C-alpha cells in the first residue's frame, strides 16, 4: 500500500502569499521567459539590471508569514492601542460612518482599486461622486467653485497662502495668521512659507489687524471659523479691513458647523479651506482625510488640485471630466504653482456620500445635537464654578483652570476620555457626533464638577444655545435632488452600486498604466484599516495609547530603509508630491547647515515627472533642465556641462530610476558620483521602485534621498485618485532634516527637523497597515520575485508588440525595465489615427488605457505589474494587435478617417440600439474579438467620447440641474 502522507510541517505552511500576489505561475513564467529569450528570472535580471547597481545580499526582513499569521500579528498590534473617547478636537472628530458607506465604498474594491479619472468615459461613477463632494463644499462654504479634494486641512491652508500671493493685489508683505488657527495648520504654513521667502505673522486678530501688519503690507489673511479654542466670532469687520488693505482672505471652516452658521462666502471670504473628516471618515490616527478648498469665481482657474467639471459627450449628453487640466503640475512643471498630484478621492467620495445619505436636514440635526452637548457641557461647568472662556462656540469649550489643566486631563483620562491640554491653565473639550450623556458626566467629574447625568434634561431646559444670533444660517443649501433621494438604505445601496457600475477599476481587469503601478491590493492587507483600534484613534492622543501603532510605524520605517538602502525614513508625507517636497527641503536645510546657502540649483532631466520641477520651485530652488538622449537616458554630456556650469550653486540632481522612459540607465552610479564631486546631492524619485525592490537599493548606489510611493510599489490602493502615502527616505547626513511635528515630538528628529509637511504627525497613518502587511506577507524572497516578474511582464509585452508598434526606448540587449513605451506617432502621421483614438478604442476591448503621452507625446507607456497573469497580459496584447489591424484598415482607405471604430470609440448601448450609419458592424464596434468571454464580461461605457474643450469653456463644477439629465434620458 502506497503511503500518501504529507508531513505536517508542509501542510501547515499552506500556499505562500507571494504565489497569490504574483500573477504568472511557474508554467506561465517559463512561457514568458521563452518569448523574451531567457532561461530563468535570474538570467533576465542579470541582463536587464546593470551589474554596477545590483545588490548581492538578501534583504534583512522577517521571514514571510501566511495570511492568517499576519492578521494575528496585526491583531496583536491593534490590541496594544487604547481607544478612549476622544474629546480632543483640533480638527479631528469622532464620527459614525454609515455601514452602507463603510461596506460599499471604503471596503469595496470597485471604489478603492480605481485609478485617477484621467479617462473620464470609464470614470463617470466616481466623477459624479466627486461632483457631489464639490457641491457639498461649495454650498456649505458659500463660495461658487470647490475642488475635488486636497490632502488635508493644513496643506489646503498652505495652498491658499500660495494662491493668495499669486492672485492678490499685494505681491509683497506678510501672510497674517490668526493665533486661534489650528496649531498644526500654523506649523505646516510656516514650513511651506519659508523656502519661498514668505513671512508668516501670527497674531490675535480678535481685535482686528495689527497696525504693524498693516504698515508692512498684508497679501493674505488666514482665520479659523470656529477657532481652535472653540470661539465663534463675526468675521465681517476683519474681512472688510483685510480687503481695504488689498489682502485675500481665507477662512478655515468646519463643514458641520456651517450647516448652522453663516457661510464664509456670506462673511466676505475669498477662499475657504478645511477638512471633511467628520463627514463619516474615521480619524485613523491622522488620516487619510479629504481636505477641501473653495474659491470665489475669479479664482476658479487658479485653483490648485483637481476640479471635476460637467461637459458633454459626442451625442451632446451631459458627462463629467477633470476640468482645466492645463493647470496641473505635469504640464506646467517649473511654472506650476502647486505640486499636488495625489488627491484624497476615496475619502472625498465617503464624505460626499455621507451628505447624500443624511441630506441637509440630517446634517443640521447632527450639528444641532453636537452643539447642544457642548452647550450643556459648558453650562454644567459654569454652574460648578469653572470659568468657560468663550460665550459663543459651536462644539468646543475651553475652560480656564489656573494651574490645574494637567490634573483635569489626567482625571478625564482615568475616566476613559481624552481632553486637550492647551497650556497649564486651559483645557479644551470638544463634542462630536458620537458624544453621549455619559461623556458629559465623566468630563464634569474630571473638573471636580461632579453631577449626575440623570439631571441633564433639567439642565437642558434652562440652558440656551451658544451660537450668536447674528451668525445663524438662514439660506438653503444642498438643494439638489441627489441630497434628498437616498434617505433609505435601499436607495443608498442602489445609488452606490449604480455609480460603481459606471466605472472601470482593477476588480474588472488590467489597468496597464506606466509609472502608476496598478497592482493587487490584497484584501488581507486592506482588512485591518477599518478595525476600531486603528480607525478610531486621534492623532494627538497620548503616545502610550498608541503603542501598537507606533511599533508598526517603527517597523515599517525600518523595513523600508532596509529595502531602499537608506538610513532613516519618515512616513509623514501623505502623497508622493509631499515626499518630494520633504526630501528637497532636507537637502536645502543640509546645505544651509554646512554653510552653503547659495546652493539652490536643481538639475532635472527633461523627461522627469512634472511634480519634480514643481516641488523644486516650492522648495526655493531654481530648476535647470538636463537634456535626454535619443536612447532615453540622461544626456551625460549635457549633464556634465551643467554640473560644471553650476558647480558652486548646485544643490541637487533629481532623477527617476529606472528612467521615466522605462530603461535601466547604465551610468547611474557615475552620474551620482559626478554630482557629489561638485558638492551636490542626488535625489532618486521612487516612482519606479517596483523595478528595484530586492534587486538594487538607491541608498547604496549613490543616492542621498528618495521618496517612495506606498500607493504604487507597496500596495496601498489608488482609491480613484487618492489616498497616497509618499514617505521620504534619506542617508544619515540628511536625517536631522526630516519632517517633525509640534504636537508629537517623537514623530520627527530632535529639534523638529524642517517642520511638518502634513497636518498629522505620521500622515495617513490609518492606511499604513496595508504596506506593513504586504512586506510581512511577502518577505525578502517574495519581494525580489515580484520585482523580477514585473520586469519580465514588461519585456514580454514589449516583445509581443514590437512587430506592430515601435518600442521607443530599450536598454542593453533590447530590454526594458518594468514598463515600456510604444510609439503611435508614425501611425498617426500615416493614418490620422490619434493616441486618443487608440486609448478610447481600448475601452471597447475591455481595458483602461496605458499612460498616454507621458513622458513623450503620442506614445503609450505600459506597465503590467507582477500581479497580472499571463492570460490577462495576452488579452491586452491581443487587443493592441487587433487595434493595429484596425488602424491599417483606416490607412488603406477601407474605413474613412472620420468614421471608423477608433474615431467613434468608445461605443455605448444607446449608440448600439439606435440607427447605424457606420461602415463597420455593430459587432465590430462592441464585440471586436467575438469571444464568449468578451460578451459575458463586457464593460459598457456609460457615455461616448467627451468634449473636453467644451467643458473648459463652459465651466460647471457643481451638480447640474436635473433637467439637463432628463433631456438626455434613455
From TrEMBL:
The reaction(s) this protein catalyses: N(6)-[(R)-lipoyl]-L-lysyl-[glycine-cleavage complex H protein] + glycine + H(+) = N(6)-[(R)-S(8)-aminomethyldihydrolipoyl]-L-lysyl-[glycine-cleavage complex H protein] + CO2
Cofactor(s) this protein requires: pyridoxal 5'-phosphate
GO molecular function: glycine binding; glycine dehydrogenase (decarboxylating) activity; pyridoxal phosphate binding
Coiled coil residues, start to end: none
Domain Glycine dehydrogenase C-terminal intervals: 786-907
Domain of life: Bacteria
Keywords: Oxidoreductase, Pyridoxal phosphate
InterPro entries (alphabetical): GcvP, GDC-P_C, GDC-P_N, GDC_P, PyrdxlP-dep_Trfase, PyrdxlP-dep_Trfase_major, PyrdxlP-dep_Trfase_small
E.C. designation(s): 1.4.4.2
Catalytic class of the enzyme: oxidoreductase
Known function: The glycine cleavage system catalyzes the degradation of glycine. The P protein binds the alpha-amino group of glycine through its pyridoxal phosphate cofactor; CO(2) is released and the remaining methylamine moiety is then transferred to the lipoamide cofactor of the H protein.
Protein's recorded name: Glycine dehydrogenase (decarboxylating)
Source organism (scientific name): Streptomyces marincola
Amino acid at each position: 500500500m502506497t503511503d500518501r502522507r504529507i508531513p505536517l510541517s508542509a501542510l501547515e505552511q499552506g500556499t505562500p502569499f507571494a504565489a497569490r500576489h504574483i500573477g504568472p505561475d511557474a508554467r506561465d513564467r517559463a512561457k514568458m521567459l521563452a518569448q523574451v529569450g531567457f532561461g530563468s528570472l535570474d538570467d533576465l535580471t542579470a541582463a536587464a539590471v546593470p551589474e554596477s547597481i545590483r545588490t548581492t545580499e538578501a534583504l534583512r526582513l522577517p521571514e514571510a508569514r501566511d495570511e492568517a499569521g499576519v492578521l494575528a500579528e496585526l491583531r496583536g498590534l491593534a490590541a496594544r492601542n487604547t481607544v478612549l473617547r476622544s474629546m480632543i478636537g483640533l480638527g479631528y472628530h469622532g464620527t459614525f460612518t454609515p455601514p452602507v458607506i463603510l461596506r460599499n465604498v471604503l471596503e469595496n474594491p470597485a471604489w478603492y482599486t480605481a485609478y485617477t479619472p484621467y479617462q473620464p468615459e470609464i470614470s463617470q461613477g466616481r466623477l459624479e461622486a466627486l461632483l457631489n463632494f464639490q457641491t457639498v463644499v461649495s454650498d456649505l462654504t458659500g463660495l461658487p467653485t470647490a475642488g475635488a479634494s486636497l490632502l488635508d486641512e493644513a496643506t489646503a491652508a498652505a495652498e491658499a497662502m500660495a494662491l493668495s500671493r499669486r492672485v492678490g493685489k499685494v505681491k509683497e508683505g506678510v501672510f497674517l495668521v490668526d493665533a486661534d488657527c489650528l496649531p498644526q495648520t500654523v506649523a505646516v504654513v510656516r514650513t511651506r512659507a519659508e523656502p519661498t521667502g514668505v513671512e508668516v505673522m501670527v497674531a490675535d486678530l480678535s481685535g482686528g489687524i495689527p497696525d504693524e501688519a498693516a504698515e508692512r503690507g498684508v497679501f493674505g489673511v488666514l482665520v479659523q471659523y470656529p477657532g481652535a479654542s472653540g470661539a465663534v466670532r463675526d468675521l465681517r469687520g476683519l474681512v472688510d479691513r483685510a480687503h481695504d488693505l488689498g489682502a485675500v482672505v481665507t477662512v478655515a471652516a468646519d463643514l458641520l458647523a456651517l450647516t448652522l452658521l453663516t457661510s464664509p462666502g456670506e462673511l466676505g471670504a475669498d477662499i475657504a479651506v478645511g477638512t471633511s473628516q467628520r463627514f463619516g471618515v474615521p480619524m485613523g490616527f491622522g488620516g487619510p482625510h479629504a481636505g477641501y478648498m473653495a474659491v470665489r469665481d475669479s479664482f476658479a482657474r487658479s485653483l490648485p488640485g483637481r476640479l471635476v467639471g460637467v461637459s458633454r459627450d459626442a451625442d451632446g449628453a451631459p458627462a463629467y471630466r477633470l476640468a482645466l487640466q492645463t493647470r496641473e503640475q505635469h504640464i506646467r512643471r517649473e511654472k506650476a504653482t502647486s505640486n499636488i498630484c495625489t488627491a484624497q478621492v476615496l475619502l472625498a467620495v465617503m464624505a460626499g456620500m455621507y451628505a447624500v445619505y443624511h441630506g441637509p436636514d440630517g446634517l443640521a440635526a447632527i450639528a444641532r445635537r453636537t452643539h447642544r452637548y457642548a452647550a450643556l457641557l459648558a453650562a454644567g461647568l459654569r454652574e460648578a464654578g469653572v470659568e468657560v472662556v468663550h460665550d459663543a462656540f459651536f462644539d468646543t469649550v475651553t475652560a480656564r483652570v489656573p494651574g490645574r489643566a494637567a490634573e483635569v486631563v489626567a482625571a478625564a483620562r482615568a475616566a476613559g476620555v481624552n481632553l486637550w491640554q492647551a497650556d497649564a491653565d486651559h483645557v479644551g473639550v470638544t463634542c462630536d457626533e458620537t458624544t453621549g450623556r455619559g461623556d458629559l458626566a465623566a468630563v464634569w467629574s474630571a473638573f471636580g464638577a461632579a453631577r449626575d447625568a440623570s439631571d441633564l434634561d433639567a439642565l437642558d431646559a434652562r440652558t440656551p444655545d451658544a451660537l450668536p444670533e447674528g451668525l445663524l444660517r438662514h439660506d438653503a443649501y444642498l438643494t439638489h435632488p441627489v441630497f434628498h433621494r437616498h434617505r433609505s438604505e435601499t436607495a443608498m445601496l442602489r445609488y452606490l452600486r449604480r455609480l460603481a457600475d459606471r466605472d472601470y477599476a482593477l476588480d474588472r481587469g488590467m489597468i496597464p498604466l506606466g509609472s502608476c503601478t496598478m497592482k493587487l491590493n490584497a484584501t488581507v492587507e486592506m482588512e485591518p484599516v477599518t478595525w476600531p483600534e486603528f480607525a478610531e484613534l486621534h492623532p494627538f492622543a497620548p503616545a502610550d495609547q498608541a503603542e501598537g501603532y507606533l511599533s508598526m510605524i517603527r517597523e515599517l520605517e525600518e523595513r523600508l530603509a532596509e529595502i531602499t538602502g537608506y538610513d532613516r525614513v519618515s512616513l509623514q508625507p501623505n502623497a508622493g508630491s509631499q515626499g518630494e517636497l520633504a526630501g528637497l527641503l532636507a537637502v536645502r536645510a543640509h546645505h544651509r547647515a554646512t554653510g552653503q546657502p547659495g546652493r539652490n540649483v536643481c538639475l532635472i532631466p527633461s523627461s522627469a515627472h512634472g511634480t519634480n520641477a514643481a516641488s523644486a520651485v516650492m522648495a526655493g530652488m531654481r530648476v535647470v533642465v538636463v537634456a535626454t538622449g535619443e536612447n532615453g537616458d540622461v544626456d551625460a554630456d549635457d549633464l556634465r556641462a551643467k554640473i560644471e556650469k553650476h558647480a558652486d550653486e548646485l544643490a541637487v540632481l533629481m532623477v527617476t530610476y529606472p528612467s521615466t522612459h522605462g530603461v535601466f540607465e547604465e551610468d547611474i552610479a557615475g552620474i551620482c558620483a559626478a554630482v557629489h564631486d561638485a558638492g551636490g546631492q542626488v535625489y532618486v524619485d521612487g516612482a519606479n521602485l517596483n523595478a528595484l525592490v530586492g534587486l538594487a537599493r538607491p541608498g547604496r548606489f549613490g543616492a542621498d534621498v528618495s521618496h517612495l510611493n506606498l500607493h504604487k510599489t507597496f500596495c496601498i490602493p489608488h482609491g480613484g485618485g487618492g489616498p497616497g502615502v509618499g514617505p521620504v527616505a534619506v542617508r544619515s547626513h540628511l536625517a536631522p532634516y526630516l519632517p517633525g511635528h509640534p504636537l508629537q515630538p517623537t514623530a520627527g528628529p530632535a529639534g523638529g527637523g524642517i517642520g511638518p509637511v502634513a497636518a498629522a504627525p505620521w500622515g495617513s497613518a490609518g492606511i499604513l497597515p496595508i504596506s506593513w502587511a504586504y512586506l510581512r506577507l511577502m518577505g525578502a524572497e517574495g519581494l525580489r520575485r515580484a520585482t523580477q516578474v514585473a520586469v519580465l511582464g514588461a519585456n514580454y509585452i514589449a516583445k509581443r508588440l514590437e512587430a506592430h508598434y515601435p518600442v521607443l526606448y530599450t536598454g542593453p540587449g533590447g530590454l526594458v525595465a518594468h514598463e515600456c513605451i510604444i510609439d503611435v506617432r508614425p501611425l498617426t502621421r500615416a493614418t490620422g489615427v490619434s493616441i486618443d483614438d487608440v486609448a478610447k478604442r481600448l475601452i471597447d476591448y475591455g481595458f483602461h488605457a496605458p499612460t498616454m503621452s507621458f513622458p513623450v507625446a503620442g506614445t503609450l507607456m505600459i506597465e503590467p505589474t507582477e500581479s497580472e497573469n499571463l492570460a490577462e497580459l495576452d488579452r491586452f496584447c491581443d487587443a493592441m494587435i487587433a487595434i493595429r489591424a484596425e488602424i491599417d484598415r483606416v490607412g488603406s482607405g477601407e474605413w474613412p478617417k472620420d468614421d471608423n471604430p477608433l474615431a467613434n470609440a468608445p461605443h455605448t448601448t444607446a449608440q448600439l440600439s439606435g440607427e447605424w450609419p457606420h461602415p463597420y458592424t455593430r459587432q465590430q464596434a462592441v464585440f471586436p474579438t467575438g469571444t464568449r468571454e468578451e460578451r459575458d464580461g463586457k464593460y459598457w461605457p456609460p457615455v461616448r467620447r467627451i468634449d473636453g474643450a467644451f467643458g473648459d469653456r463652459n465651466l460647471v463644477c457643481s451638480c447640474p440641474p436635473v433637467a439637463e439629465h432628463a433631456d438626455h434620458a434613455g
